[in-house]
Structures are given as C-alpha cells and as structure tokens.
Amino acid sequence: MSETVNVDGVDYELDAEPARTSLIGEGAPMLWGFPVNVRRDGEVVSRKTCFVGRISVAARNPEAPDAPYDVLEPVLHELAFERIVKRIEAQEFENEIVFA
After folding, report:
1. DSSP class of residue 95?
2. Which three-class secondary structure state does DSSP give residue 21?
3. How far apart are the first and last CA of the chain?
4. What pLDDT shows up at residue 22?
5. Please, which pLDDT band fits residue 15 given cuts at 50, 70 and 90?
6. DSSP letter string over 50-94?
7. Is 42 exposed, middle or buried (0-12, 13-18, 19+ CB in 10 A)?
8. Is-contact 60 79, C-beta < 8 A?
9. What is the CA radius of gyration of the chain?
10. Which of 55, 63, 81, 88 lies at 20 to 30 Å from 72 by C-alpha?
11. Helices and strands (H, E) in the chain, number of each type
12. Contacts of 47 (CB under 8 A, 6+ apart)
C-alpha cells in the first residue's frame, strides 16, 4: 500500500510492504511489523520499520485486530503513516524503528 503526503510543499511517497505478525499472545496477534520506504522524487530517502500494537489498532477500529487482513491493513498503515509524517515534518530521515 502506498500513499503520497505533502510536507512543507514537498511530496513524499510512503510505500509500505505487507505486515507480518511479530508477537502472538494467547492466540491473538499483539503486534504487527512492516517496513515503509519514504521516497522523494522517486528516490528512497528513508526506510522506517514500523511496529503497530493491538491496542492502537483497537482504539482506531475495535473490529480490526481480529478482522481479515483487508480490514486490518488500512488501519495498520494509517497509524504508521501518521507517525512517519511527524518524523518527516521534523526532518528526521534516518532509517529507524517507529512505534504506533
């Protein structure tokens, strides 16, 4: 999934790879992880490894944590992209881990 965001007049493409379940507790996924490439003018300027927790997902959409992936995925990406945009606004382009 990808999305274009504009920060200070510059377009950045956020290109997320599919999420992987990183932690399972009592049979339910508790954490999902996935990399997001941040591109400016088609060139990767940063790679953010995102981890999104079950509580964050449930707060945004209570049904999403246990829903099929087509329902879960947009919520995961929305939460991660919000954090990444804040990092771009702060001019933080190093590769890093981002928690949402």
Report:
1. -
2. strand
3. 17
4. 72
5. very high
6. EEEEHHHHHHH-TTGGGS-HHHHHHHHHHHHHHHHHHHHHTT--S
7. exposed
8. yes
9. 14
10. 88
11. 2, 6
12. 35, 36, 37, 38, 95
